[in-house]
Design brief:
It is built from seven helices and 18 strands. The chain is α/β, with parallel strands linked by helices. A six-stranded antiparallel β-barrel has the order 13-16-15-14-17-18. The protein has a five-stranded parallel β-sheet with strand order 4-3-2-5-8, with helices on both faces. Strand 3, helix 2 and strand 4 form a beta-alpha-beta unit. Helix 1 packs across helix 6 and helix 3 runs antiparallel to helix 4.
C-alpha cells in the first residue's frame, strides 16, 4: 500500500480569528475551462487533469516577449524567466502538448500591456528608491487581467479560468467586517513550501469568482510524480525563477543614464559613491563597493537626495510599517483596528500584527516581534484563518524610536 506523506502544514493556518470559509467548487465534467499555460509542469499538469476529468479544456498562453533586448555573448547561459527569448520554446511546448491531447490552444498577445504595466513599473519603482514586486503586478494586470480580456475579445467563452498556482478560492460563511459581502477570496495552499497566495492578493474579487487552482491540495513532489506518470516532458524542464533574466538587467535600465551619488551612514558621513540608486535595495550587503571593518547593509534609499544609506544589521530591525494602496476583498475596507498575520515579502515568516487605520487610506501595522529589512515598494499581505484579508504597498518601516 502506498503511504502518502503529510503535507508540510502552512503556518498561516496556525492562528484562528473566528471566520469560517467554504471551498468553492472546482470545475466538473462538461465545464469549459480556459487554462493559463506557460509550458511548465504546474500548468501543463493542470490542463491534463482537467481534460481527464471530462472538462472541455482550452489552453491559453500570454505572449510577452518583444525581442527588444539584444542577444547575449555566445556561451552565456540565461536563467529561466517569465520575460525572455525562451518564450518561443514555451509556446512550442504548449502547442505540441495541446495537439497531442486534442486541446484547443490560443496564444494571446499582451506585449504592450506588459511593457507598460510591468516593465515600466519595475524601472520606475527602482528609480524612485523602492523595491518592486513585478510578479504581483503581472498577476493583477496581465495574467488575470489583460490575458482574460484578450481571451474574451477572441470570442472564447469559458466557465472557469484555471492556472497551476498553489492556492485556492474560498468564500466566507458570514459577511466581511460586519457587511453582507461574501466575496471569492484567496486562501493559502496547504503546502507551506509552495504556497503562492502572496503573489495573488491584488486580483479583484469579481475576477476570482471564475478562477480556480486545481493543484491547491498537492505538494510539488506529487505534481512532478503525476506529470512523470503521464510522461509529460514539462516535468523535465527547468522552472522559471526570475521575472527577467538577471543578465538583462543592465540592458533594461539602459534607456536612461544612471545618476551616481553618495553612499552615507546613518550619521551622514560619506562612505563612498553609488552608481545609481536603481542598483540597490534595502537589506543588500554585496556589491556596495564600500570598505568597512564591519558588515554594512543598505538601510534605506533617499531618492530625493540621491543617497544610499548604510547601517549595521541591527539598525535594519523595524517594529512596524506604514502601507498604502490597499486592496481588500470586494472593496470592503475595515472600519476598526484588527489583528492579523502579516508577511512583508514572499519568503518572510508570518508574524502577528495589529492593523490600525490611518487618515487618507493608509494603514499602520505594529508587529508582535521586530522584522528585518522592511522594504518600501514591497507588499504587506494580511492573513486571517489562512485566507488573505487584504494587502498594501509598504511606504516605510517604523522604528522603535518613532513609537
Amino acid at each position: 500500500m502506498k503511504i502518502r506523506k503529510p503535507i508540510p502544514m502552512n503556518p498561516l493556518f496556525y492562528y484562528y480569528y473566528g471566520v469560517k470559509y467554504v471551498d468553492l467548487e472546482l470545475p466538473k465534467a462538461g465545464d469549459t475551462v480556459a487554462v493559463g499555460m506557460s509550458g511548465g509542469v504546474d500548468s501543463t499538469l493542470t490542463a491534463l487533469l482537467l481534460k481527464e476529468k471530462g472538462c472541455r479544456v482550452i489552453g491559453v498562453t500570454m505572449s510577452l516577449w518583444k525581442g527588444d533586448l539584444p542577444p547575449l555573448p555566445d556561451g552565456t547561459k540565461l536563467h529561466s524567466s517569465c520575460y525572455g527569448p525562451d518564450e518561443v520554446e514555451d509556446i512550442a511546448q504548449c502547442t505540441k502538448l495541446c495537439a497531442q491531447y486534442g486541446i484547443e490552444y490560443h496564444v494571446i498577445d499582451v506585449k504592450e500591456q506588459y511593457q507598460k504595466e510591468v516593465l515600466e513599473y519595475f524601472k520606475a519603482e527602482y528609480r524612485a528608491g523602492r523595491t518592486p514586486n513585478p510578479c504581483i503586478r503581472c498577476n493583477s494586470f496581465i495574467k488575470f487581467g489583460a490575458l482574460l480580456q484578450g481571451v474574451r475579445q477572441a470570442g472564447i467563452e469559458f466557465d472557469y479560468f484555471c492556472t497551476g498556482h498553489y492556492a485556492k478560492i474560498v468564500r466566507p460563511e458570514e459577511g466581511l467586517w460586519g457587511t453582507n459581502l461574501r466575496p471569492a477570496m484567496i486562501a493559502c495552499a496547504a503546502d507551506a513550501t509552495k504556497d503562492q497566495a502572496y503573489f495573488l492578493y491584488r486580483i479583484p474579487s469579481e475576477t476570482l469568482e471564475k478562477v480556480r487552482f486545481p493543484l491547491a491540495g498537492m505538494t510539488k513532489k506529487e505534481t512532478f510524480a503525476m506529470a512523470r506518470e503521464r510522461a509529460l516532458t514539462a516535468a523535465e524542464r527547468p522552472e522559471s525563477q526570475d521575472f527577467i533574466p538577471p543578465e538583462y538587467f543592465d540592458y533594461l535600465f539602459a534607456d536612461k543614464p544612471s545618476v551616481p551619488g553618495d553612499i552615507i551612514d546613518l550619521d551622514g558621513h560619506v562612505l563612498g559613491r553609488h552608481r545609481g540608486i536603481e542598483h540597490y535595495t534595502v537589506g543588500q550587503r554585496r556589491g556596495l563597493g564600500v570598505s568597512s571593518s564591519r558588515p554594512l547593509y543598505v538601510h534605506s534609499i533617499d531618492a530625493e537626495r540621491n543617497l544610499v544609506v548604510l547601517s549595521e544589521d541591527t539598525a535594519l530591525t523595524a517594529c512596524g510599517l506604514i502601507a498604502d494602496d490597499w486592496v481588500w476583498p470586494a472593496g470592503a475596507v475595515p472600519q476598526e483596528d484588527f489583528d492579523a498575520l502579516v508577511k512583508i515579502r514572499l519568503a518572510s515568516r508570518p508574524v502577528p500584527a495589529r492593523v490600525e487605520r490611518m487618515d487618507g487610506g493608509s494603514f499602520r501595522l505594529l508587529f508582535s516581534e521586530p522584522q528585518r529589512a522592511v522594504a518600501p515598494g514591497q507588499s504587506a499581505v494580511l492573513y486571517r484563518d489562512g485566507v488573505i484579508a487584504g494587502g498594501g504597498i509598504i511606504t516605510r518601516p517604523l522604528y522603535a524610536k518613532e513609537l
